[in-house]
Sequence to fold (489 residues):
Amino acid sequence: MPYRALLLVTLVPAALLLAAVVRLPWAGDLGMHAAVVERLRADPLHPGHPLVDADVPSPYYSPWMVLLALLAAATGASALAVLHLAALAGLVALGTGVRAFVRTLTGRRAAVPLALLCVLFLYGTRLFAWSGVPGLTSLALTVAYPSTLALGLALHLWALLRRAVGERWGTVRFLGLGLLLAVVLLVHQFTGAVAVLGVVSVLLGARPLPVRAVWLRVGAGVLLAGAALAAWPYYPFTALSGADGLEAIHRPLYQHLVSKFCLVALGLVALGARCRRDRRDPLVLLFALGAAVFAAGGLTGHWSWGRILPAVLLPTQLALAVEAAGRTGRRAGPLLAGATAAALLAGAYVQAGAVAYALPARAARFVRAHVPSIAPWPSFAWAAGRVPAGETVMTDDYHALRMLPAYGPYTVAPAYPDVFLTDERERRAVTRRYYAPSATRAQRLGALREYGARWVLQRDGGPGLSPDDPALRRAARGPGGLMLLEVER
Fold:
């Protein structure tokens, strides 16, 4: 495929993603990450839980988020403002990471832009967006998440490790790679697991296998990575290995697999060709390891193991790009190039709705009315502007639970499961008790007092205390019949 033509084509999704960096469409976990920055900026040493008023550690407090919080504190910028910078950093890290790793696999210039296109478009006929999976739609919504930066750093780590093994770097450099691995694991633990599988694949796929001295240096890097993880002060990393409560929210990763990833089948053909040439090819090994973990999660009901999915998808996408760029045979070359172009066009058609993230609101609504897409969530600035930072809001609204903490307030119940929050079940039970249609006024007032809720966000005419109750005062009204009520002090 012509190199310049591929570069020009790649500029289109790149422009869309840069627009997403500027606009930062809000859907999913963006509020969680903004809340993390808010808590760290308010108290860098003892931030507490990011969503509820509880003095517990949190795996969201990573080196990257600490750095962003320090930047916010130094500049006076809001949490959401620094997340724009986080999005740009993540996008740059991912793009340069793909380039660095692909260049260790082939010298063909066309492979890099083709790899970027495959990573963005080679999925399926059903829209799929999930943190750590860098499809165009998914990345537009999650570009500011730590998972984007972590995946980019993981790709750089694999590229550097391939050079380190081939050039027999010294111990100091291998120690640096160990620290980089620890950073990836701390920044995003699920992507860290992908990074570990990639490290194993690179080492076992090296030709020739590393000599004893290199293995000793690798061991030193691994020991340093373990020491860095153990020394991280914000949460005990080893406690995550026995975490439960995360399975239900990850079950969708195992649903509709054919429609979400059918276009990846072409990449399997490329992997097969690489496997025939070299059974220890690092992409083949990474795919095999990732597929084994993913399958084990499905067979045992450990749905959270599905977060290893990038270790399954990336090898197929990159293998296809490398093979399509390198094929020169009279039949195989044009055939593979044509099939790759067709698959990419199909993937681009499926994700065409991502163009809405770069358009003004009115044009974006028109696009979404005609093309499948994931719409950004409504703003909660109307409510957040009334609630002081650090005060607690009682709500069971899906979006409010995930967005209000981004502005500084807490909620009674957390939006997501948390392995360190020991009273999570009690908090959810109290919230259900307040909104239960059969609850008495005394029970609802007791629920508000139990966790110090000074504000209530509920739907007009929905369950909860009447807005005219003497214990409440109307503070603001939002879209969709939502009301913010202040509890009389």
About this structure: The chain has two domains: 3-357, 381-487. The chain is about 60% helix and 5% strand. The longest strand covers residues 453-459.
